[in-house]
Design brief:
The chain is α/β, with parallel strands linked by helices. It is built from twelve helices and twelve strands.
Length: about 325
């Protein structure tokens, strides 16, 4: 893995830290060489990649900020085939020159792998000049390594504990969840909401909501980056994971949650509905975005009807098709 020395200047990353200090046993060997906003590191990174002499290079891409560095490097890699693993085609935040920058990166790629049908449609619409044979409609695999290969659970540890996990940004809709929680608390006085994740920007607007509704007794706050070793404790304690997103393409949090057979309640936005099944094989509940009453109703329905076990069993069936091996094979078959 050719990794970053630093991803962003401080003004562009208003969270506590850019670094993951944990070192999982299965971590790939890595060389920290690239700082994308410092062009002199581009050549250093290119030389390191070319000295490795790869047959295939996979570039993970999620915002246009990285496109100049990534695009310059991949155009100069010797003889390797280039795959862009594109997490987003349309972006949560507004970026200047997003479309030309993204086009600059995507154009030389041999294949562009997307993680939802929504992203595939966005690519066809925004960049019709890119040949369709280069586009691979993939999926977001399950993060099984967080739970362990033999994880199983018959019931949640805490039956009235909700989980909101991940980097806290505006589009994640935490404000919607905080508006919904007082409605849930009318029926479940002992309801608990775990907030686990670093804050992108200021937490003050959320704290104002917490104070207004007197929610502090119902909250457990871990407002910091959660290292890999601690992820398990939050998902194993909870009865459901809440994703009240205002916008989305797909979600790595769903992939974490499913690793623990933990159902989700999520907004019906972007490609989220591709991962949350409803009906006979339901793995969660989808609600309209930005609607606290609808979210509260979904949470109450989930708790009142004891849906955890049924949904959890259905996740076992679903995640058999969402493995890293199957995504890898899909990519290799496309070459």
């Amino acid at each position: 893995m050719f990794n970053f020395v630093r991803q962003y200047p401080n003004w562009l990353f208003p969270a506590s830290s850019q670094y993951n200090e944990s070192t999982p046993d299965n971590e790939l060997p890595q060389i920290r060489t690239l700082t994308p906003y410092l062009p002199h590191t581009w050549l250093k990174t290119l030389k390191a990649i070319n000295s490795y002499n790869p047959d295939l290079v996979i570039v993970s891409f999620w915002i246009p900020f990285f496109a100049p560095a990534f695009g310059w490097i991949i155009r100069r890699i010797k003889s390797a085939r280039i795959i862009i693993l594109a997490h987003n085609i349309e972006f949560h935040e507004k970026w200047f020159f997003a479309k030309p920058l993204t086009r600059y990166l995507l154009t030389p790629a041999h294949r562009i792998v997307l993680l939802s049908e929504k992203s595939s449609h966005d690519l066809f619409r925004l960049y019709p000049e890119i040949p369709k044979y280069r586009i691979v409609s993939g999926f977001h695999p399950i993060y099984e390594h967080f739970a362990g290969q033999h994880f199983s659970r018959l019931h949640p540890v805490e039956k009235q504990t909700l989980l909101f996990f991940g980097l806290i940004k505006d589009y994640k809709g935490l404000d919607v969840l905080l508006d919904a929680l007082p409605i849930v608390r009318e029926q479940y006085l002992d309801i608990k909401l775990i907030l686990a994740g670093d804050v992108y920007g200021s937490f003050s607007p959320y704290q104002d909501q917490i104070n207004r509704y007197n929610l502090e007794p119902s909250l457990e706050k871990h407002l910091t980056y959660i290292p890999d070793q601690r992820i398990k404790e939050f998902f194993q304690r909870s009865v459901v994971c809440i994703l009240p997103y205002v916008s989305a393409t797909q979600s790595g949090i769903i992939s974490m949650s499913y690793a623990f057979n933990l159902p989700v309640i999520a907004s019906r936005v972007g490609g989220i509905g591709e991962y949350v099944r409803e009906g006979d094989q339901a793995t969660g509940i989808l609600v309209d975005p930005g609607n606290p009453q609808a979210l509260a109703t979904a949470i109450l329905s989930y708790l009142n009807n004891g849906l955890y076990q049924n949904f959890s069993n259905n996740i076992d069936l679903l995640k058999q098709n969402l493995t890293w091996e199957k995504l890898s094979q899909k990519i290799m078959d496309s070459l």
